[in-house]
Amino acid sequence: ATRPGRTPRETATHCPYCALQCGMLLREEAGRVTVLPRQFPTNRGGLCQKGWTAAELLDHPDRLTTPLVRDPASGELRPATWSTAMARIVSGLRAVQAGHGRDAVAVFGGGGLTNEKAYALGRFARVALGTRHIDYNGRFCMSSAAAAGLRAFGVDRGLPFPLADLGRADTLLLVGANPAETMPPLVRWLTEQRQRGGRLIVVDPRATATARQADLHLQPLPGTDLAVANALLHIALTEGWVDRAYVAERTDGFDAVRRTVAGWWPARAEQLSGVPVADLEATARALGTAERAIILTARGAEQHAKGVDTVTAFVNLALALGLPGRPGSGYGCLTGQGNGQGGREHGQKADQLPGYRRIDDPAARTHVAEVWGVPPDTLPGPGVPAYQLLDALGTPGGPRALLVFGSNPVVSAPRAARIERRLRDLDLLVVADLLLSETAALADVVLPAAQWAEEDGTMTNLEGRVLRRRALRPPPPGVRTDLAILADLTARLRPTPDPRRTDEPADGETADGETADPRRVFAELRRASAGGVADYAGITWERIDAADGVFWPCPTVDGPDSPRLFADRFPTPDGRARFHPVEHRPAAEEVSSDYPLHFTTGRVLAQYQSGTQTRRVAALRRAAPDAFVELHPDLAARLGVADGEPVRVVSRRGELRAPARLSPTIRPDTVFAPFHWGGPARANSVTNDAVDPISGMPEFKICAVRVEKA
Ligand code: SF4
């Protein structure tokens, strides 16, 4: 625990970055903060280089320490007081809503925000602003798996079992996942799994660091994973590996799926995907004959305009083999962002209220409105998914003001140049961030926000395990927590502000009762989530402190939490899981003579998300200084491109420029670029903005391009 006033000061907390939420110890001595390893069930003392270097940003010279307000005369961002900045925001929001209605203001959140912030942001949008327009960057992360899980199992929890189960699986199938680069400490579970005699099979168009460790690597054409899954189920049916008793007792809808996959004989899947029939058969056998088998998907399978159906195809396979609910078996999704799981449970999604409730459910509206102390009919209805929201900004009838917390859509949104134009067209753009991101650089007002080591809160990791982030020290002078910003804005937006309100509220409570205390926000979140799918009612900070986190659902303080789901029933009305027949369909944009190559995006080990933070960390910058375009040597030879030579990747929407990196690990018909950089190397200048009709997930993982020498 934090011991204020003592030297050295130590805090047991978690990494600020990805969904593994590795445990770490922060020590402050003589003003210098260092990261030390800490035993925690997900990382068991391991950290990747991003975690080891996370403290560097606490005292980074680029850090924002004062609000910035754009000067109308010069057009420059200038330092301002909090009073000036907040007054500018409030007057701007009021003017926009007076002229264009409440929905003319929108809020955009992030999957890195704590549960308390995600909750407070949803309440702020629906109550203080009264707008239906709120969504977040998690829509770009694992929304397809969330939607697929919800419709099959009645619940969306990334892993419905503890991570340790990976080490016990006899067969582990990873689809579009590269944990060796995205979550290195997780690889120890994979190593243990193979040391126990288990088989690791990876499906990925690139021979990634993870795929190179696998016993079998299937390298399909991007966008054909769904056909691969249907072919695997076809083989399992033919060979008699389907668990018919499980299907009969615990599921509905298998007959329709059986009819669909009957047409996916392996040779047809090979023709479409390029995966040899022998490899499909070996994979189906490894899954179908294993005592314990786990199927995991990640962004490679999910970030498609058919992402929900692709994940559903693998969920169908898992259900047909009787895996979900069996020890050491099941289907799961590897969440990406630090609070990708919790971030989508507490109401910062366009269609949701806290507790993973639907915003159009009358009972949910009544329950949450009561917690919020407002009449249910004053709550707005559902908004629109993230890309649709961003693409409507500044257009006739679309929102004219946007508040962004913990996100950088100028780099992370698909078809990013268009989104950048939309942001420039706004009457008011407000960004709260710790650094001047590419999005913050466009803002009218920038608010300096506290970092992870400067505030308390909870996160929910990829296992559905709720954890405590603990503050090591308070924010520096001039910097506020997001909760303090929201509390202050809420107070100022009241029709008749309390005259006792101060301009400079502390992090506890504003003079007129708006709380910025994360512990009190969490207490309210628990009440709001009670009875919902993601029920936190029984989770207290003390209970988290006494154990290695608490798994939701956890409805009572004295009752058990839920490390494993689905043992006896699924949380559907009748307790049964649902099959859904799904068919392959082409990518939204196919290759042509002008754009003859497939383009796909992803991550590198030393960078994270839009790179706002990690590009500023010296060791990470040394490890991964620049973007690159990965090309197969055969393709490079055809194009006359040498290793390191600058190239342009051109799509129908834009281009990126970066040096070529030749690698035999990628298919010759596919090129890859990481998405961590802005400017000319921005991968999302090229990506397609077609979205999944169910989840709203953009098709980041495939579009058509040509490559030219720059
Ligand atoms: Fe942080 Fe993720 Fe690396 Fe762990 S794996 S240290 S949580 S970035």
UniProtKB/TrEMBL annotation:
GO biological process, one term: respiratory electron transport chain
GO cellular component entries: membrane
Keyword terms of this UniProt record: 4Fe-4S, Iron, Iron-sulfur, Metal-binding
Annotated region (Disordered), positions in chain: 491-519
InterPro entries: Asp_de-COase-like_dom_sf, MoPterin_dinucl-bd_dom, Mopterin_OxRdtase, Mopterin_OxRdtase_4Fe-4S_dom, Prok_molybdopt-oxidoreductase
The 4Fe-4S Mo/W bis-MGD-type domain, residue ranges: 8-60
Official protein name in the record: Assimilatory nitrate reductase catalytic subunit
Native source organism of the sequence: Micromonospora krabiensis
